[in-house]
Description:
Helix Hairpins, Rossmann fold, Alpha-Beta Plaits, 3 domains, six-stranded parallel beta sheet, four-stranded antiparallel beta sheet, 15 helices, 10 strands, elongated
Amino acid sequence: MKKVNYIYYSFVALFLVIGVGISGFFLVEGYSFIEAFYMTMITISTVGFEEVRPLSTNGMLFTSFLIVISFGVFAYFITNATKFILDGEFRNLLKNKKMESTLKGLKNHVIVCGFGRNGRQAVLDLLLHNERVLLIENNDGVVEDEANDEIRKNKNFFHVHGDAVNEDVLLRCKIESAKALITTLPSDADNLFITLTVREFNKTMTLISRASEEHSDVKLRRAGATNVIMPDKIGGTRMAKLVSQPGVIEFIESLLLRSGVDVNIEEISCSDLDSHNINKSIKDLNIRSISGANLIGLKTKEGDIVYNPSPERVITADDKLFVMGTSEEIESLTCLFVGKSKNK
């Protein structure tokens, strides 16, 4: 709002001058309100139309005084009004009003703090999975860059200008109704503050934080982060794996990191399954034959990961299934077992 304060000051100054002019002509010359307003406007705009009637000596002195004080004010107003429109701030003001209206009904969205390399990649991948993404970034120039045109045009992308460390900005972004938050700021202290603030208002959301220092990992988890990602550490591990297990890494990256790949790995919560599919063995569910998708693992209530589970294993309502297949196969499996489309 500070960026457009000058236009408000311009309006206030202009109205004050108009008020002085109307009052002066009314008192000095005895003009009616309409006559005083007309004389004021032709005086401050310097258009030079004929007076309503000849001025008295006092009227001439007052008109000279009004010309002196109004010339600078009127020029200041015209300059700022032109700047307000041509610099795009008027458009941004309308955009912010529209955004406020959108934010009122926003829920189950993912908030991303920061639009650096990590933040931008997170936004791209989330949009690829049809998630509603709300970006918090205080540098509009980064978001408005031509390289991000496709991101801005995506109907599921929203941008709020502000500092994510500011509690009011986070509340404005509806953290209480968001499904997840990813903070990618370069400062571990900022990420820690965001984590503490978010956990105060939303105890259950998934919260992913970036960390740069080794010791920050424990602190962020203690503050409430669901997962902590250290980009440098992950990058080093991946480079080492590319030497020792290049084929495996290429296979995994083709599934998880590259866009345009037809096969995906998706998570299905068993709490959403129809009751007649609960407490059945994997063999009885016959996932592969029914949908074409493959069950490659599951997560238990205790958080244990079971890789390539046995066909005899019984599925409970607390489990989470990890399935691999095409979008159509996974959609088919979801419809058959859950009884509805996953995306709905």
